Automatic annotation (TrEMBL):
The keyword Signal applies. One of its GO terms (cellular component) is cytosol. SMART domains: OmpH. Keywords: Signal. It holds the Pfam family OmpH. GO terms for molecular function: unfolded protein binding. Transmembrane segments: none annotated. GO terms for biological process: protein stabilization. InterPro entries: Chaperone_Skp, Skp_dom_sf. This is Outer membrane chaperone Skp. Residues 1-17 form the signal peptide. It comes from the Bacteria. Belongs to the Skp family. It comes from Hyphomonas oceanitis SCH89.
Amino acid sequence: MSLFKHMLFALSLVVSAAAVTAPAASAQSATVVMIDEGRILSDSKAGKDIQTKLKNLETQMKNELEPTRATLETDGKALQAKVEGKTREAVAADTALVSQLTAYQNRANAFAQKRQTVSQEFQLTERAALIEFNKAIEPVLMEVVKEKNAQVVMSKSQVIYSSDAIDVSAAVISKLDAKTPTITVTRQRAPAQPAQ
């Protein structure tokens, strides 16, 4: 699932929570407002801030892995050249080559584990940033709900048709920009894996 889809899903949970907390009213007399989560995320200062910080973190993480990846690629090609043309028995008989191949495989396995850990850390960081984003949106959304005297908040992604007049996304973005233009994005660390 893409970063944007994760963020939209998390934001839809805030909308659901706001809709549940709104007072119940009969369908005929209820004031309904709608928000466009994608627009809030892409157009708000806080949403843009999160996306920029996550992209920068992703680049930093890739840069951390690159030297090891490049070394493994170079060493892999060198070992491939040493093995090329030899039978399995000839390779097994060359103890120095077997030692090099074993060491290479161990480093490749360690790199795969590191890459998996970095990926997990990115997902944890993304989730933590979205939690902070949702915390910032909730009070702003409730302010708009009170201003509009709304009893129901709907997500634009869940509605087949609605009038633009009930879309309060711009008001939510405006208030969010004023109150929370940035979101702290702190790299989360994956729990240590037990040694095998």
